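Usage example:
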Amino acid sequence: MRPFAYERAADPGAAATAVVDGTDAMFLAGGTNLVDLMKLGVARPATLVDVTRLPYDRIEHRADGSVLIGATVRNSDLAGDRGIRERFPMLARAVLSGASGQLRSMATTGGNLLQRTRCPYFQDVTKPCNKRDPGAGCSAIGGGHRDLGVIGTSDSCVATHPSDMAVAMAALDAVVHLRLAGGGERAMPLHDLYLLPGDTPDRETVLEPGDLITGVELPPPPDGAVMLYRKVRDRWSYAFAVVSVAALVTTEGGGSLREIRLALGGVAPKPWRAHQAERMLAGHRPNRELLLAAAEAEFASARPLPGNEFKIGLAADLIAASVRDLTGDLVGEERR
Amino acid sequence: MTTLDKVVGGAPVRIDGREKVTGAARYAYEYPVPNAVYVWPVQATIARGRVCAVHGGAALALPGVIAVLDSGNVSRLHPADDAELAVLQSADVAYRGQIVAAVVASTLEGAREAASAVRVDYDEQEHDVVLNPGNPRIFSPRKANAGFPGTLHWGDAESALAAAPAGVDATYTTPAEHASPMEPHATIAFWEGETLTLYNADQAPWMSATALAALFGLADGAVSIVADHTGGGFGSKAVPRPPTVLAALAARAVGRPVKVAMTRQQMFPLVSYRTPTVQRVRLGAELDGRLTAVWHDALQQSSKRVEYTEQTVAASRMMYATPNSHTAHRLLQLDVPTPSWMRAPGEAPGMFALESAMDELAYALGMDPVELRVVNEPALDPESGLPFSSRNLIACLREGAARFGWAGRDPAPGVRRQGRWLVGTGVASSTYPVFTMASTATARAEPMGRFVVEIAAADIGTGARTALAQVAADELGVPMDQITILVGRSAFGPAPFAGGSMGTASWSWAVSKVCRALVRELDERSGVVPPEGLQARADTTEDLAAQGRFSRHSFGAQFAEVKVDVDSGQVRIERLLGVFAAGRIVNARTARSQFLGGMTMGISMALHEALELDPRFGDFTNHDLATYHIASNADVRGIEAHWIDEHDDQLNPIGVKGIGEVGIVGTAAAIANAVFHATGSRQRDLPITLDRVRAAMYTG
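Running the assembly step on the lines above writes:
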């Protein structure tokens, strides 16, 4: 581990200045991922700027039904918040399905969004990785990639974003609030925060050095919305998603879907909002055939590898099961 | 002496429990040693070849760095049977992750950073790391681990298989697995002249000290190992591993005490693993279920430096009556770290295959799987012809079936649906040999009515310390709190390891014997303890030699109920119930924990554990506990362990068989059999992951 300086930022401006002006400086929040990466030699900051004392530790439920979750709110506090549990239950469920109690007590909202992939090659500095070392090559594509991405990936990187929380937020149309390095503010859909790897998998978000996530805003869920988060994993706790789905629906007379939002985890370099599938399903009364067709359309651009091709069928089954569970039994569903 | 209720067979709490939960119990790395410095290994990044040069200059320039060690500047060791222990003795690289250099520095973090600054030049050669059944270098080893024959036949298995009216012929695979005990391997080493002291995470204080004395060319007794508490081992700490040798070499090189602690990642290549296996089982049977042939072949791997053959087919030789048998191991030596012992080496993977095949045979015959096992109960050990000292497999099956609610089970596979779940149940047998080794122990009466018992046993979390105190209390006729039991130190004299489930069986014999001797001496003095105390010493070597010829094994039966999610293929174990026959149970509380621990590890084996080889690099891609999965609490729902009251007077004075390993044997088969019953798809490859379940259910 490279020796590093530690600073506790007194205010947001000082935090940004410390990172912009510092040599190899990084923000430190809960540290549940960054400190591991420092031990492994993957992250080698010379300075850590601790932002956990900055005034972003509140969950603000607003009169219009929206909520602003501060960037330094701990995952455990987020999952335990009564308003979140009652009005955004998929988010509470998603957060609780991630990591362990100890980790959730440290991890923050902003840090969760910016955590790095758990691709084993990214975390092993003795092996080539384009994300860690641009141009070195991707070890995962020809190696162990069962847990990695099937869509939105590129020839240079197949990493997945590991967050559960972010998948639920994607389905909730979350907006990320930023304090820019220069002092201005900006808000953008969570969807736009992340970059797909393309030829530059080392660039994961649109953030510039010193830009700081200050909070995540969730607009009020649509009237009558029901939602769930379902995570499929290789053991029943303390495992990253093989595939997860965050689903929200509203229905109208006759059982057709007025609105449907689907986000997938474990399949892509970012929380994967399944817009294509949503468009095919909205306004229709769902049945298994239609749901599988929608999933197939969503994954038309997928580029699975031999070891993770099963994720596409699994995701399709989970989409179908989620809509089934949110709407009652599907019309004409053939039990498999 | 007063008469007290016997405590052997009771359930006293662990005498070190409070120390452990309050953090007062000292593990190897925690001893305060003045002036200690820190060692960080540099590991090979090639799988085969030679180190041409180690460039330590950049590392040495960093603050606090004391030395960069490589094969050119450490002491020469004496040859050892285990070539893995020849740490830094040559420039050869035999596997990726091997220690090729090390940094000694004044801080742990400094040593780690400096190790990353050491540049190593290699002459890399092509490596061969894949257990490929078509490899022409596969051979039939003469001996397997623990002295079992490599190959064994009786009768004519081929003819019997050809003639059998019913049968099974199936191939099962198990992956490489890693023991991953909770306490990472750790050592503090320091030299005083020609004596070496090691605080070591160790299952075998005396045996390790003996091995290391030979390795360093030291006199007997010149190596002293302290292992008061060891945080699990599962075989990985049963013999010295390279990190311990590195610590001793580094301490000698820098002339100061050193500390070595493995990170979780470093443990994967350096402290051994269980071999992967490819097993073919062929069974022939009459229509009434009686086996006419058992044929079991296991292909496994070892390193090119060490021929280690896990005794995977050994249980198939003694488990069921059969007039014809062919059982064989085959081995392929690769450019990999040497596999070694991991909880129930041999029986754990072997019984997965045999007990899965028995379930397949039960279906082929339309017979209840419990009854199939019952009709194949042998009168004598089929392999040796010896009588069993005790064999209560049938009792375990019957008791387990009753407790589990097996009666009336509909055998039809793939038909029980509860919402999105398919439900199934399965059964398998467990077995493990009774090993015993000679041990010494010392007992001392002190004035004021206290007793001290010393034995170089190891309590690796099993409760051995408590069990031995119970044995001593009964023999001395005093309450347990009048006894100080000291374990974990090689200086206490010859004693076997906490391995092969032989710890309590072997140590309790010596403790019992020495306490009886002390009681006799006290009786001769009318119970008066002289001011300097009174001491007795015992050695069970001759007692063991006088044992009768019997086949000695523990047995068990495990029943599983699983649910399989039809949406995802996820398997959920609703209930796991084991009944064991393992001789006398010394401590019901700690024994239950041991059984449950073994069964839980069996759940991990069934559903989770797999080291994933990357053939290009030659190592395991997953090498931390985030990616190498073991069961979490949420994976263990209903779990019960029971035992039958078994009295066996052909074992040792306490009547102990040993319980450390039998709990993991058969678990994976019971679960796989339950998955078949639930889904109708047979899972012959471990672990049973959701993608495998989906493939079998939806495309298979």
